[in-house]
Design brief:
With 185 residues, the chain is mainly alpha-helical. Helix content is 62%, strand content 6%. 16% of the residues are buried.
Amino acid sequence: MFAELAKTLLEFLKLAPRLIVALGGASAILLFLNDHWLKRLGVFEVVQKYRFALGLTLVFSIAVPGVNSASFVFSALRHHRRKKKGFERGIQRLNNLTEDEKQILRYYIQFNTRASMLRYDDGVVQGLVHQGIIYQSSSMGNLYQGFPYNISDWAWDYLQANSPVLKGHTNAYRTDKDRSWRDPL
């Protein structure tokens, strides 16, 4: 009997949320409707006989969406907290850049662009990618000139507002794009 009840319960939990709410509403109506209306509907005896099942249906139909809602809220809060911590780590990272990293990021700020061509096999580039400061925006590129990398919105905003972070031993900037086709800067 317990196995059948557990199987029925699992099947109930697999139902779509709308159906669960509808079952809960129907069971609530049947449980709380007065005897006169139950007799008029012809379900008085059924409700009396299966009141226990109707009560369980009502409880589960309230509990399942409640648990799903709570799970969604906790997941959203956890995501927000992780995002905030990641942002704080990113800001801390931007304040402790190496000269090579500064040169790559100076290019974005110097030319007021969010895109640069950088070599995929460069450890400095991959370090910035790993930190979420830049990201590869397309797979179209080559090993000689590199691939397009964009700067993250949060890093762009922070560096625009805090340009002294990019001050270093040199004023050099870096991109791996071949500039021979353009006028030299």
